[in-house]
Amino acid sequence: MAILSVLDQSPVRTGGTPADAVRETLELARAADRLGFTRYWVAEHHAAGGLAGSVPEILITRIAADTVGIRVGSGGVMLTHYAPLKVAETFRMLETLYPGRIDLGLGRAPGSDQRTAYALAYAHQPVGPEYFPNQVSDVLGHLTDSLPGDHPFAAVTAQPTGETQPEPWLLGSSDQSAQVAAHLGTAFSFAHFINGDGGDQVMEMYRRRFKPSDWMAEPKGSIGVFVICADTEEEAKRLATSRDLWRVRLDQGHIEPIPSVEEAAAYTFSEAERARVIFHRRRNVIGTPEQVKEQIDNLLVRYGVDEAVVVSITHDFRARVRTYELLAEVYGLAGRQSPPLAAE
User: Fold this and answer.
1) Smallest Cα–Cα separation from 151: which of 166, 165, 134?
2) How does DSSP assign 121-133, residue by residue?
3) Short-list 114, 113, 148, 106, CA closest to 131
4) Is residue 333 helix, strand or coil?
5) Residue 344: pLDDT band by 50, 70, 90 thresholds?
6) Considering the entire predicted model, what is its pTM?
7) Per residue in 51-65, pLDDT tens?
8) DSSP codes, 224-239
């Protein structure tokens, strides 16, 4: 049976504010928990006008407090910006607060432009992606107090210690993070919504090279899939036009708020831009519940995994929630009873 989870990039819509996007993330998380999704991951982007999620660990804290049973985590922490000890301490604290419910997803991309990466590093040189494998190894070592005896920080203990640990995932849209995940024995999630070519081969390589670890005895994979689901195919395609325009602008270096369907309809696409729309649409799953389920199921078979982490972006927030409601219905997810809300 397919496992369905959520990736939320906290999109900012035109006419709304980043604060609205954060409030919508909290509302969508409560809905996902109520509907029976397995996990809820929040992304990390910096200095992006169209994406408000800059500090996933803070969002995780609030989301976990507002939900009952859904796992909550990062999709992911952009590790090149941070010291492994700090990441380990942060997620040990989250696991202490919400034992058995925290995922630590790690990514190697900066989630920003180079100037912003330097601002995050402040007085220090940003760490290059070539250090990512060592950083991941150090995070895992700090989480389990298992750094080698000759490691310079072997005597440093990440607090608070506890009986359980967050579940580590490596995230990627190429084979590089997959190789690190296989070597270190962690779970791996491939971002099909970013790169729709060759991901099945990357996942097969990950499984083939996987080395059992203290984290897991066997490989564990998922795929990130972009989905817009509506009651009719026509409505789903209409809703998708706003992201088409947003994605074209992203290709041009502009991470702007999500345009409305009306703005997309009024926009005159150049021939080159229309070609980009067609290119990006190839890896999107758009349609009615039955059409979407068929496409997701086919992707799961193609990748050889059981779990789809669904990201959906529409200008209309209610339409985005509707995507997840229809998915929960067509897949027969078992819902949960929501807890009382924390004070807003």
Assistant:
1) 134
2) HTTSPPPPGGGHH
3) 106
4) coil
5) very low
6) 0.93
7) 999 999 999 999 999
8) EEEEEE-SSHHHHHHH
